Amino acid sequence: QGQSLEVFSRPAEAPAAAAAMAFRASLSLRASMRSKVRRGGFGSPRDHEPHWIENWNKDHRAGKDSLDWFFRAFNSTGIYEVFLKSSPRFYGFMICGGMVGGDYWSRSWD
Q1: Model-level pTM?
Q2: What is the pLDDT of residues 5-14, one digit of tens each?
């Protein structure tokens, strides 16, 4: 603390001393950032799943399933990408679909 009082007691040297302190701080900050290991932590996109889950995800059933023709036709329509992903469009689709479906369901009881 005594040094900081000495620096500001001489007004001509104050900007130079402050610049030197900022430069030293930036050098040490840059050195500490450089020395960190940059890996994906828990829950990051680079975090790997357990090995058995990665193997399970690699096992595609294309061409093995009896409903393969249906899955190929459904994927070619693009309905999932447009409506069924979690997005505002998906929520709107669910609300409007629920309203229309609920209306027809209640009319079926009348």
Answers
A1: 0.34
A2: 555 555 555 6
